[in-house]
DNA sequence: GTCTATATGATGATAGAC
DNA sequence: GTCTATCATCATATAGAC
């Protein structure tokens, strides 16, 4: 119905799994089933679509992390739920791959949107670490900001390693190791 | 033989910092200071150069990790030295970015070389975790393979986060947090 | 808003002379 | 081994009709 929405949804999926620079407008049009005229009417330049996609994928990721944490009894359980984000790592992180995409980094608005998404995720995790320390499920000795950063890095790294090796089990090993350290 | 080396060295640097798919043969030629005739004489296709680069960057990374660990008194100190690999994260990991590059993943030989490099790093780290447990500098309760995978993931993730936010300090926070967990 | 036709430059090469 | 010329294809649009 709404071609603009069809374009964005296709681009979100394609930029996520195949990369921004390595996906052409033509591929997006084909996937969305819209013509060139429609595409360039809604997005004068590819970067305009990219900006929208980085923002939406960032929001989606934060929302899915919040959803995965919902209903968990302790702060530690919520952190465990976050580590589960790497449970299907072969497709790559919704936004992590953009950090290595020269086409994203070359465009200041896209770069800023990417940084903002990571900052929001870090802040969310830090607040959950504090909750976990408050309810006694995680050691009070840990620095909340650094612990949150480490957990986010483990998950992002797990995506990288899984894609590099082609084996999901390498991501699972990383998150299991991180959990053991957290509980240690 | 000299131009071949110049081409490889330029490509190693450019593919590392700017990505494989987003760097053209022409850019490599310009950086290396060689002409098209020379380039295609040594590397019939871009992927042939890419294969060489993935292998060399993998070997270089393993070698630099080994060098950083050398002379450290305990296994834990060697792991700390490895965490320091993310001390200059804004340029990206020598091989980590390839995991999100569609042009690398689409070529089986490049993909295999990438996976092999990660496997070698993981194996190296696992052996160091075992040494650390043997000398008492790291808890014997930890699973060596999972702990090694987690530490590698932290470092790879630190590169991703630093590039996404544009701030080295976000990588430093992640590795500091990981060290605290390891010592915890 | 969408269509088709057209334009410009880059990419990843190949051909043949030196 | 290296050079210059050439080439097909693709990426990224723009123009104007409907």
Shape of chain A: elongated
Text of the CATH class of chain A: Mainly Alpha
The profile of the biggest β sheet of chain A is: none
What's the helical proportion of residues of chain A?
Answer: over 70%
* Largest interface summary: A-B, 61 and 61 residues
How do the helices and strands follow one another from N- to C-terminus of chain A?
HHHHHHHHH
Class derived from helix and strand content of chain A = mainly alpha
Oligomeric state of this protein? homodimer
User: So, CATH architecture of chain A?
Assistant: Orthogonal Bundle
- Uncertain runs of chain A with pLDDT below 50, 5 residues or more? none
Which key features would you list for this structure?
homodimer; 184 residues; mainly alpha; Tetracycline Repressor, domain 2; 9 helices; 0% strand; elongated; DNA-binding; transcription (chains A, B); TetR_C (chains A, B); TetR/AcrR family transcriptional regulator (chains A, B)
Could you please describe the fold and organization of this structure?
Chains A, B: This is TetR/AcrR family transcriptional regulator. The structure is a homodimer of 184-residue chains. By secondary structure, the first copy, chain A, is mostly helical. Chain A is 72% helix and 0% strand. The first copy, chain A, has a single domain, classed as Tetracycline Repressor, domain 2 (Orthogonal Bundle). The first copy, chain A, starts with a helix and ends with a helix. The structure holds a DNA duplex (18 and 18 nucleotides).
């Amino acid at each position: 119905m709404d071609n603009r929405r069809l374009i964005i949804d296709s681009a979100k999926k394609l930029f996520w799994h195949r990369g921004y620079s390595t996906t052409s407008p033509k591929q997006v049009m084909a996937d969305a089933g819209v013509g060139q005229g429609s595409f360039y009417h809604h997005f004068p330049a590819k970067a305009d679509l990219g900006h929208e996609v980085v923002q939406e994928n960032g929001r989606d990721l934060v929302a899915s992390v919040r959803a995965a944490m919902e209903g968990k009894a302790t702060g530690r359980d919520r952190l465990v739920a976050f580590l589960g984000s790497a449970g299907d790592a072969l497709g790559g992180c919704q936004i992590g791959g953009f950090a290595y995409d020269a086409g994203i980094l070359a465009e200041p608005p896209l770069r800023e949107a990417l940084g903002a998404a990571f900052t929001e995720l870090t802040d969310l995790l830090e607040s959950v670490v504090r909750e976990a320390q408050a309810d006694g499920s995680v050691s009070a000795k840990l620095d909340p900001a650094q612990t949150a950063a480490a957990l986010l890095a483990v998950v992002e790294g797990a995506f990288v390693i899984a894609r590099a090796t082609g084996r999901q089990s390498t991501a699972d090993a990383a998150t299991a190791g991180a959990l053991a350290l957290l509980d240690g």
